[in-house]
Amino acid sequence: VCSRSTTLSDEELSTKMGFNVAFPEKVYGEYNLDSKADAVGINKKVNEEISEQLEPDMFKAIDDETIFNSLSQYNAYRNIFAVYTKEDNTIFISVYSLNAPTLEEFENRSTVAETSVIGVKALWVEVVSPNYKHINDNGVGKADLHTRPYGISTNHILTWDYNGVRYDISTYQDFELTMEETVKIAEAFMAAQ
């Protein structure tokens, strides 16, 4: 996924995504909106070399529909997310377009619990990933996949589909929420949609 901060309003993001998106200034009464980002990802497995070759076009595709459409062979999708903070804790609330990974793809993970958000099926998915040193490559911050990871992180994502749109909530690094807390945040967010 390639992303960058955006100053687009919720109305402009809604037009771009093709469905209503609202990122309230506060969610669950405790987390304050810090920033929003616009992103393009691909839902097709590719090797590291192809991924690096696609990266410049993925960044351009954030603002260029023609370039976005040229990535269709890789099942390109749009993603917008908001960063919410409470003290030193950070959560991400993401909204995905068509072609994004589906709930069924998450169900194949080893650690999944089923719950619900506003009465629809949701999954609590454990995500284990390597930690790589971050580098600045031509003005883009990213993980240095050419080095050995310095550790392993385990986090959880709450993900659900509603009216053809996929949503998820995740946390940053060592901060972790319980499934019950995350469901409450999700329901507060969905009340604003």
Structure description:
With 193 residues, this protein is of the alpha+beta class. Helices cover 24% and strands 43% of the residues. Strands 1, 2, 3, 4, 5, 6, 7, 10 and 11 form a nine-stranded antiparallel β-sheet that branches. It has a two-stranded antiparallel sheet with strand order 8-9.
Topology:
Layout (H helix, E strand, L loop, with lengths): L1 E5 L3 H8 L8 E2 L3 E12 L5 H14 L3 H6 L5 E11 L2 E8 L6 H5 L4 E6 L2 E12 L2 E4 L2 E4 L7 E12 L2 E7 L7 H13 L2
Antiparallel strand pairs: 1-3, 2-3, 3-4, 4-5, 5-11, 6-7, 7-10, 8-9, 10-11
Give the number of helices.
5
Tally the beta strands: 11
Largest sheet: 9 strands, antiparallel
N-to-C span: 24 Å
- DSSP strand content: 35-45%
Fraction in helix: 10-25%
Shape: globular
Mean pLDDT: 89
- What Rg do the Cα atoms give? 16 Å
Q: Show unreliable segments.
A: none
N-to-C order of helices and strands: EHEEHHEEHEEEEEEH
The helix-and-strand class reads: alpha+beta
